[in-house]
Amino acid sequence: MNERKAWAINGFVGVVNIIVLLILGVVLLVEESPLGVVALVLGLVLSTGIFVVQPNQAKALIFFGRYMGSVRESGLWLGMPLSIRKSVSLKVRNFNSAKLKVNDVEGNPIEIAAVIVFKVVDSAQALFEVDNYEQFVEIQSETALRHIASQYPYDLYEETGYSLRGNTEEVAMELKGDLQKRLSVAGVEVVEARLTHLAYATEIAGAMLQRQQANAILAARKKIVEGAVGMVTMAIDKLKNEGVIELDEERKAMMINNLMVAIVSERSSQPVINTGTIY
């Protein structure tokens, strides 16, 4: 069931007409005219159709179980008499999910939470397609969050691809798209979806921290070695091009070994002064 515009007229015009009917009914009753009762009943019946719509709100009109339409414009209105009017807020709202414990694609337990920004765009669907659209948003948000979290690893080390920690923008867009499909039936538009918490579960946090530290050390060592090789190559080429000294293969290997040790070593190297010939 989709939203449609309900019949309604300006409420101030309706109030004036109701007052006129009530006054006319009283006058006719005083004159003992049977039309006085009709005017009074008609005025009282019309008065049941007066309602107020607040800004960023929609009123859905239900007449004896039948949906007659919705009024979105704020102000005083006269609608279908004897109808039931249900209010739906059209304001932008957010939902903060609880911290969920789920398994990522590699089976590692993680804690994850998100904030969902949404608004109602179809009052009829929000009221009549689901039992409680606010509760529906909460449940579907947690369901979508669990689904997305199980599709990616928490982090990538050597592999290429998406991860929850390394690709927050892409994960947020996919979460928004998945959630929008789930909430369309309730007439809800997802404005934004963002992860607010992401961490390893406490039972494996220590082990994963050690793994991250080990990977960081390996990455740093790799950079140091690459830089050291470049420096040694540059030093040997410079000595050769400028003709400072000619080194045979054995001495060249020794020089490379000494330079690599001096550059790569974590501690400062102790120089050894050779007072004799290098040969």
UniProtKB/TrEMBL annotation:
SUPFAM superfamilies reported in the protein's UniProt record: Band 7/SPFH domain (SSF117892)
CDD domains: SPFH_like_u2 (cd03402)
Keywords noted in UniProt: Membrane, Transmembrane, Transmembrane helix
Keyword Transmembrane helix: yes
Residue span, Band domain: 48-212
Transmembrane segments: 7-29, 35-53
Pfam families tied to this protein: Band_7 (PF01145)
PANTHER family referenced in this protein's UniProt entry, alphabetically: BAND 7 DOMAIN-CONTAINING PROTEIN, MEMBRANE PROTEIN-RELATED
Protein name per Swiss-Prot or TrEMBL: Membrane protein
